[in-house]
Amino acid sequence: MAESLTPPTNPIVLIPARLAATRLPNKPLLQIAGVPMIVQVWRRAMEAGIGPVVVTAPDPEIIAAVEAAGGQAQLTGFEHQSGSDRIAEALERVDPAGKYDAVINVQGDLPVLEPETIRATFRLLADPTVDIATPVALAAEDERDNPNVVKAVFEPRGARDGRALYFTRLPAPSGSGPLYHHIGLYAYRRAALKAFVAAPQSALEKRERLEQLRALAIGLTIHVAVVDTVPLGVDTQADLDRARALLES
């Protein structure tokens, strides 16, 4: 978005989740340290102290689990192709009057996410030129050629942030120097989220299978917050075992 914008002051955190996972069925409801995983993610988001936290899902079982733990949840439709589409629907249901001016999208499979990662990402929206913020961390050597690890290419503005130029599954940029592992968490200005979900998929988005390239294609600015660690994402039984060991110790 070309115009200079006012820093957002009233954010909301939305956590999209769904039961339809192929590698780890019923993933959000699997128990970690005595509660469903989605409740652990909700707790990490609450600990960030950014604003209200709402889990959004098409499955009544997820809604019930969050509400039983004292959390807020919003039922959405099944038709969404991405978490961004799901949070856009949930935002309009939770806040049709437009009270919240920023949205933080936290993935529902990050039970050991550091709350400071959420805070560091949201802080970038204080810059009036930033439409979307997202975290990155140094990639490990064995991640350089792994296509499942998305790399962020960005122009540094300082030691802890920079403007994103591209995202790719290839080891980029070329030459000597560090590569950065992109973490799938986003802080949007509300207008930026609305523009993003309304836009059609871009050619590079389809080619790389990375939806953030659509935002760059329509002229939205994405800045990255450099954080210390990549949070454990739970996609397999081995990941679940690691998360249980971390949170139950």
In a few lines, what is going on in this structure?
This protein has 249 residues and is an alpha/beta fold. The protein folds into two domains: 9-110, Alpha-Beta Complex (Spore Coat Polysaccharide Biosynthesis Protein SpsA, Chain A), CATH 3.90.550; 114-230, Spore Coat Polysaccharide Biosynthesis Protein SpsA, Chain A.
Task: Give an overview in words.
- The chain is α/β, with parallel strands linked by helices.
- The protein has 2 domains: 9-110, Alpha-Beta Complex (Spore Coat Polysaccharide Biosynthesis Protein SpsA, Chain A), CATH 3.90.550.10; 114-230, Alpha-Beta Complex (Spore Coat Polysaccharide Biosynthesis Protein SpsA, Chain A).
- Helices cover 30% and strands 22% of the residues.
- It is built from 8 helices and 12 strands.
- Strands 1, 4, 5, 6, 7, 8, 9, 10, 11 and 12 form a 10-stranded mixed β-sheet that branches. It has a two-stranded antiparallel sheet with strand order 2-3.
- A hairpin with a 4-residue loop joins strand 8 (151-156) and strand 9 (161-168).
- Helix 1 crosses helix 4 (115-123).
- The longest helix has 12 residues, at 37-48.
- It is globular, with a radius of gyration of 17 Å.
Q: Mind sketching the topology for me?
A:
Blueprint: E1 11-16, E2 31-32, E3 35-36, H1 37-48, E4 53-57, H2 60-68, E5 72-75, H3 83-94, E6 102-105, H4 115-123, E7 132-138, E8 151-156, E9 161-168, E10 180-182, E11 186-189, H5 190-198, H6 203-208, H7 212-217, E12 222-226, H8 237-248
Parallel strand pairs: 1-4, 1-6, 4-5, 7-12
Antiparallel strand pairs: 2-3, 6-11, 7-10, 7-11, 8-9, 9-12
Helix pairs in contact: 1-4
